[in-house]
Design brief:
Length: 119
């Protein structure tokens, strides 16, 4: 018999993040997946925007154990979960806008020639 049942809210540690969700380790025996659709009611473009590896989160078990020791989990069903998108800094290149600035005169000239041909 499983130590956990559908509806239980437990804490677990994020062990892996994939495009489709995050894997959570609850204890030495049990773990599961929080599918991307079970993270939040809002659009999730990148799971990494919400979680980090080794982060501790509260999850709700949303199905009975079908595969031994593997649980289907939800974060959005946990009351007051406060999951928010993390603000990540944009990494600037050493060139910044230099490359665009360098190409701009060429692009303007090309568009002007294109415009002149039409008129």
């Amino acid at each position: 018999m499983s130590r956990y049942k559908k509806g239980d809210i437990v804490e677990g540690k994020i062990t892996s993040i994939e495009n489709y969700g995050a894997f959570i380790k609850i204890d030495e025996e049990y773990g599961g997946l929080v599918h991307i659709s079970e993270m939040t009611d809002k659009f999730v473009n990148d799971v990494n925007d919400f979680f980090d590896i080794n982060e501790i989160v509260s999850v709700k078990i949303i199905s009975d154990v079908v595969i031994p020791s593997q649980l289907k989990l939800s974060i959005k069903e946990v009351p007051n979960n406060n999951i928010k998108r993390k603000k990540r800094k944009i990494k600037e290149s050493a060139f910044g806008f230099y490359l665009l600035k360098k190409q701009l005169p060429k692009w303007i000239e090309e568009k002007m020639k294109e415009f002149d041909k039409k008129n």
